[in-house]
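Lab notebook, design round three. We kept the backbone fixed and only want residue identities now. Task for the bench partner: fill in a sequence for the structure below.
Input structure tokens:
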């Protein structure tokens, strides 16, 4: 009951935040929600199904590109055409999630035959494949030099942009506020679906394969199908995060090097979220996203107040954040392999034990309560 009330209170706070903070912090919060959606998907395949994946940046690129193509219009850029299907943005979002999930499903033959570090290296190859395809398919991505502007998301004719004037309780609903509520809805839906999957038969099959593939097969679990499903679900979450990212940035731009918006560094950042939050923990993945994606954004917003350019030897907020979550990963691995989620569970257990202790009177004696009818006191 207390946990439910806590979630409700957190949701109410998040709903009220746009009335008290500015566009800069709202943008930082949106970036954290992008990371939360992607990290939840990654923790399902790594923590729940036990399959190492470093391909999340590739799935972000696939999701963002698919949305831009499905929702955008065909236009000419110089001597080349950039193709689009002009579908409603809501349909394009769903289509991007489905298409990205199919990309994850297509990886099933590899996932079914590899495990551990070998599987991780195989998924890492997808990141470099995405780097190549992003530059080689400018008719879809717009090319690495300029990219393409995605169609703003709209629902029932309402655009989540600065188009049109809207005010709620005296607060002007500009692009930052509109995207905040859109991302919040998407994050809550992704969170609840993941929690439901973990508690369902599908989640039990994931954990059975994670713990012992041979024993899971003996019990009737189709190991190959379970692995394929885990990768497809994780990829779909990555695709949703990719759509949110291009909407947040307002631009789909493939990387010009292996380290960029869809590069190796992004895959490592998502892996760090899972490790810091706790393998397999859905709330832990959200907390990990807050640490990894929230730190550089918040430091950027308050860079001038904190004097980051001079007091810290010219280190940028991004560099500082790399140190922060790098140290966090080391501390978690050395002292709490269960991550922040394990610490939270331990604190919650201690609190529940404290509240369940018998009441004591002023003299320190235990007050005995009447036993329920039909039961003897002990």
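Proposed sequence:
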């Amino acid at each position: 009951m207390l946990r439910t009330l806590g979630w409700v209170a957190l949701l109410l706070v998040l709903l009220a935040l746009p009335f008290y903070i500015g566009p800069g912090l709202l943008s930082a919060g949106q970036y954290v929600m992008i990371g939360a959606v992607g990290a939840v998907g990654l923790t399902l395949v790594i923590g729940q199904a036990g399959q190492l994946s470093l391909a999340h940046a590739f799935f972000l690129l696939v999701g963002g590109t698919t949305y831009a193509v499905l929702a955008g219009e065909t236009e000419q850029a110089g001597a080349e055409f950039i193709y689009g299907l002009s579908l409603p943005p809501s349909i394009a979002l769903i289509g991007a999630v489905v298409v990205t999930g199919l990309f994850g499903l297509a990886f099933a033959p590899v996932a079914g035959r590899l495990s551990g570090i070998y599987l991780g290296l195989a998924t890492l190859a997808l990141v470099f494949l995405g780097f190549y395809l992003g530059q080689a398919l400018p008719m879809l991505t717009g090319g690495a030099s300029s990219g393409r502007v995605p169609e703003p998301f709209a629902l029932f004719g309402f655009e989540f942009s600065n188009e049109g004037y809207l005010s709620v309780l005296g607060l002007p609903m500009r692009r930052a506020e509109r995207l905040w509520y859109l991302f919040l809805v998407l994050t809550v839906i992704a969170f609840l679906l993941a929690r439901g999957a973990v508690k369902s038969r599908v989640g039990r099959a994931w954990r059975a394969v994670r713990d012992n593939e041979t024993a899971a097969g003996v019990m009737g679990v189709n190991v190959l199908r379970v692995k394929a499903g885990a990768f497809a679900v994780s990829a779909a979450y990555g695709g949703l995060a990719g759509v949110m990212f291009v909407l947040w940035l307002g631009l789909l731009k493939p990387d010009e090097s292996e380290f960029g918006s869809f590069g190796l560094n992004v895959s490592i950042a998502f892996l760090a979220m899972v490790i810091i939050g706790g393998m397999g923990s859905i709330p832990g993945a959200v907390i990990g996203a807050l640490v990894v994606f929230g730190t550089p954004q918040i430091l950027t917003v308050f860079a001038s107040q904190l004097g980051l350019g001079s007091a810290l030897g010219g280190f940028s907020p991004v560099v500082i954040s790399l140190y922060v979550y790098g140290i966090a990963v080391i501390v978690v691995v050395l002292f709490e392999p269960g991550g922040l989620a394990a610490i939270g569970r331990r604190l919650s257990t201690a609190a529940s034990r404290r509240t369940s202790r018998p009441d004591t009177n002023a003299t320190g004696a235990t007050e005995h309560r009447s036993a329920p009818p039909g039961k003897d006191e002990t």
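Keep this in mind before ordering anything: The longest strand covers residues 75-77.
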